[in-house]
Amino acid sequence: MRTFFDAFARSDVDAMGQCYHPDVSFGDPLFLELEGRERVLGMWRMLLGRDGGLEVSARDIAADNHAGTAHWTARYVFPRSGRQVVNEVDAQFRFEDRLIVRHHDEFDFRQWAKMALGKPTGLMIGWAPVLRRRVREQARGQLEAYLRSDSPISG
C-alpha cells in the first residue's frame, strides 16, 4: 500500500497499476463502481492528467495479508469552477495474490460538492439526489469519452 500511495503522490499511474490485480474493482461516492484494471487506471489517468495541481498525501496506512486501510488527502483546483478543493478520503483495500483486488474510497460528497462548485450550486448538488446523480453521470460520461479516446489507459 505504501508503494501505491507513493506512486499516487507522484501521479505515476503505471506504478499504481502494478499494485492492482487484473480483476480490481474500485468504488467511491462519485464513480460508484468501476470494474477491471483498464477502467480503474483509466479513471486515475484522466483525473491525474487534468490541470489542477493535484497533491496527494496519505497517512494511517495499515495492512495485513488480506486487507488494508488508509486515510488520504487530495488537494487540487477543480477544473470546472477553478475552486480549491481539499478532499479527505478514507480508503479500504482487499488483497489477492499480494495485489489490490478491491479499492473503495469514502468521502463526504456534500462537502466535496460545496468546495468544488461553491454556494449555492454545490449545496444543492450535495443535498439533492437527482442533482447528485447528474454529477455522477457527467463523471461517468467523461470517463467513457476518455477511455474511447487515444489516451493511454493500460499500465
UniProtKB/TrEMBL annotation:
Residues that span the membrane, as ranges: none
Residue ranges annotated for the SnoaL-like domain, each copy included: 2-103
Domain of life: Bacteria
InterPro entries: NTF2-like_dom_sf, SnoaL-like
Protein name per the record: SnoaL-like domain-containing protein
Organism the protein comes from: Sphaerisporangium flaviroseum
